[in-house]
Every structure is written in structure tokens, then in C-alpha cells.
Request: fold
Amino acid sequence: AQSVTQLGSHVSVSEGALVLLRCNYSSSVPPYLFWYVQYPNQGLQLLLKYTSAATLVKGINGFEAEFKKSETSFHLTKPSAHMSDAAEYFCAVSHTGNQFYFGTGTSLTVIP
Amino acid sequence: DAGVTQSPTHLIKTRGQQVTLRCSPKSGHDTVSWYQQALGQGPQFIFQYYEEEERQRGNFPDRFSGHQFPNYSSELNVNALLLGDSALYLCASSLMMGAGFYEQYFGPGTRLTVT
Reply:
């Protein structure tokens, strides 16, 4: 069985501060892991993906995530938050890439 | 290069009615997946179509059905609508290319409201 847990449904950071969004996964086999961002009234946009290559993955808009097998984690980080980063962020896991299992999302607020 | 498109953008239906949502995949993609995203929740997998057949299905009742056409576009049909079917319905397309990783690209979604 595969599942994703996102700790913290709401995260607030000051503009320029570090962004850390947490994701832990459960998978019986090595997974593919993803982070998506969703702006209001829009679909999902892929930020980055882990597909068993480098454990530190760099994505768009300055985001990156590190796959830690020992901790079954794939936390999303960004060194310096920007106002435009305010959105809903979803972590997802897949075994084959066909069926994705999403977390419940983390709403990021950036305080000016 | 057009991405994934969905129609309509918004839809309001009454309980018991039937609805059809449409999706055109990203150019070059041959696989379409449908997701339901209830308010405040993550997307839930409904089913996936490839070569005009349903390949995988999530935990959704038979009221949810779909179709894929020869041009790879797809429809999602929901019969006997319930209030709980109100959600954002997302379509995602990908390329089925044997063993390996299939990145999914999402459309903007159709917002269905059941009253």
C-alpha cells in the first residue's frame, strides 16, 4: 500500500525566510515522489520529482527536496520565501507513475 | 504546444442528474487519468484510460465511468449525482512507454457543484 502524510496543513513564513514543507511516505517498494503546487482555482503544477536518481532534487522556482529512505521522507524546501510562493502544496507518491497518491496538502502563507 | 485542457470550467447540476466532463491530453500523450479533489483535500484517483480501455481504477462507485477516444481525449461521466460529488475534477495526461516512469501533467480542472 502507498500513502503520503503531510505534516502541517497550514504553514506561515515571513518573506525571505526558509520554507520547509514536510512529507512522509509509506510504500512497500521504492517509490517515485513528487511535489505539486496549486494556485487558487487552478490545476496542479509539477515542482519537482524523485525517480531514484540523485537523492537531492532541484525543481522550479528555487524549490528542492531531499529523498531520505531511512526517514521515509521527502521534505520540500526553499531558502528564501517569496510572496508568489503562497499556494497549496501537495506531496504525491507513485509506484509505477500511473496511479498517484496525494497527501492532503499544505497551505503556505507568506507574510510580508 | 497546448497542455492538458478540460471543459467546461464550471458546472452546476442537481442531485440525481448526470454529468459529462471532457479532457484533451497534452500533445503526444496517450494516457489519461481522472482525479477528484474535494474542497480542502488532495486529489483522489478515479481511473486511468489507455488504448481506449480502463486500465486502473480507484475506490469509486460504478456511477463514475469514462471513455477514451481514438484521438486520446477522454470523458468522465457521473450518474445519479450526489451532493458529495461536488468537487474539482482534474484530468492528467501522460505517456505510456513500457516500464519506467510516467510523468503526469494536470489540466486546470472542472469545478462541479451539485445542489
Observations:
- DSSP finds no helices and eleven strands in chain B.
- Chain B has a mean pLDDT of 92.
